[in-house]
Design brief:
- There is one protein chain.
- The protein is mainly β.
- The protein is built from no helices and ten strands.
- A hairpin with a 6-residue loop joins strand 4 and strand 5.
């Protein structure tokens, strides 16, 4: 059974950047479509961005033009570069391959 470990979250001010990592063990990450999701308190979990097995990215409107999803197959890791962060980006961020969820990493954007 594979697992994901997310990391890279933290507390930043509006306009700053963070780079999240999702590292897989027990499975080969790049054969899957992998998505980054987020869940804010009191809200449903929502998709932010995904990257398919061919390496093609897709973004939701909330992430477009600010976030970049990428992967490093040698490190078995998917990244989410988040720029120009806003308070509304505050959430726990998770990665998922359609089956497995990680434990999440907290992102807090506040002045």
């Amino acid at each position: 059974q594979g697992r994901f470990v997310e990391s890279g979250g933290g507390m930043v001010q509006p306009g700053e950047s963070l780079r999240l990592s999702c590292t897989a063990s027990g499975l080969i990450l790049h054969v899957y479509t992998v998505g980054w999701f987020r869940q804010a308190p009191g809200k449903q979990r929502e998709l932010v961005a995904m990257i398919n097995a061919d390496g093609d990215p897709n973004y939701t409107n909330s992430a477009k033009d600010r976030f970049t999803i990428s992967r490093d197959t040698a490190k078995n890791t998917v990244f989410l570069q988040m720029n120009s962060l806003k308070p509304e980006d505050t959430a726990t961020y998770y990665c998922n391959n359609g089956v497995i969820w990680g434990q999440g990493t907290q992102v807090t954007v506040s002045s």
